[in-house]
TrEMBL record:
Name recorded for this polypeptide: 30S ribosomal protein S1
Domain (S1 motif) ranges: 20-86, 104-170, 191-259, 276-346, 363-433, 450-518
Lineage: Bacteria, Pseudomonadati, Pseudomonadota, Alphaproteobacteria, Rhodobacterales
UniProt similarity note: Belongs to the bacterial ribosomal protein bS1 family.
Cleaved signal peptide residues: none
Amino acid sequence: MEEFEALLKESFEIDTPEEGTVVKGRVIAIEAGQAIIDVGYKMEGRVDLKEFANPGEAPSINVGDEVEVYLDRVENARGEAVISRDKARREEAWDRLEKAYANETRVDGAIFGRVKGGFTVDLGGAVAFLPGSQVDVRPVRDAGPLMGIKQPFQILKMDRRRGNIVVSRRAILEESRAEQRAEVISNLSEGQTVDGVVKNITEYGAFVDLGGVDGLLHVTDMAWRRVNHPSEILSIGETVKVQVIKINKETHRISLGMKQLQSDPWDAVERAYPISSVHKGRVTNITDYGAFVELEAGVEGLVHVSEMSWTKKNVHPGKIVSTSQEVDVMVLEIDSAKRRVSLGLKQTQRNPWEVFAESHPVGTAIEGEVKNITEFGLFIGLENDIDGMVHLSDLSWDQRGEEAIQNYRKGDVVKAAVTEVDIEKERISLSIKALGDDTFSDAVDGVKRGSVITCTVTAIEDGGIEVEYNGMKSFIRRSDLARDRADQRPERFQVGDKVDARVTNVDAKTRRLGLSIKAKEIAEEKEAVEQYGSSDSGASLGDILGAALKGSDRG
């Protein structure tokens, strides 16, 4: 009996399937939208036909088909087995998907629904989440055409315990594109000429589709001339012929060029534009340091701000020329290696200092407006926007420069004489006093140091006397009024007295005469001693002077 019970128990364990497992069954009938399936062990169960259909497809099930189902419970209230095709497919799918995830292989699925943030995907029994950012390489506005279509996906994350799977369609597309790019790039070589379609335009260039791979056509490689914006010469969708300049095998970046297919105008620049030759050009760009002038398409030169005007030294180039203006320029220097041409604008006009020197020789009188007053003189505006300077020392004959300059204001119109023109230093020296009479020179004409002149006393002061000679005032100090100290008294003179004095100094710079009565007396005494004897012979000074006076009376 014990052996029989053990065998019976073993047979029951073998014949009764375990709940929660996948079992095989056979379709014995299809009725009322359900398939009746015999799972063996004298048990049958029912499964809705829709569980046998893939998303977007009709159910494919026939009587006699062998299928796998998931056994939930052995018996329900009606004495049937509770089975599910979906759960069987899910269990099967999870096993398959876990292997694919581990091996990083693609899986097939179909997008069948839209949820917040993305879509749901049927992966042959398991439902996965497809984030919106993983649908395509570019944002997708309408996902309708992608729904219900069987296509490959890459599993990004999965958690069987929580039942979560995240997939990506974008990763498949990027991989395909990378393979396609690699294939296209492998067929390209640097220097090759290819046709492409302008796909996108930016400020710095344009992206050109070369048949599955994009190349960058930089704005500086579009034309030899200056291109301010790529849209000036290209439009989206346009087919263009380009040359492959560089290929980066690692990053798959391709640099393209259009101007490389045209002849380089710089090859003939030195022949076409000899040094010192003058040409017409168009201003293309203005900067703080100068203006760029296009001589021909692809050849630009810089007119530095210092070469723009003879007279306007500290102004912005935009005050002298304007963009698109046609100007005459002179070629100053060419550096073909650096592709630079230095141009001059002012050189096409005559140097205004040369013109002035030709038309205004030294001594010429001019008239101009006081433009500026500085501590060292006046700046006078002349023709052709040039200035001349009157130094303090050239303002007046009679006043010191610091005093004379106080008589002038900006805007005053003055007359002056040209005293010097330095073309190289761009400097013109003028003199206002040169047009007036030099009263000092006229007054002291013929007067030299040592001369004795007769002056008229004009004022008596404690320190000496003021005298006048030919309209020129001089001052004789107290110590120079007489040889003898007792006679060095200013009060012994009266205004109007005529006095003889010896000239001790003629200073044209300060315009003063140095006079001394004492020096005259000493000189007379010396002369008398020389002619009529010396004090050493025993004669007194009075005797000598008396003899000198008698001699002069006889003469």
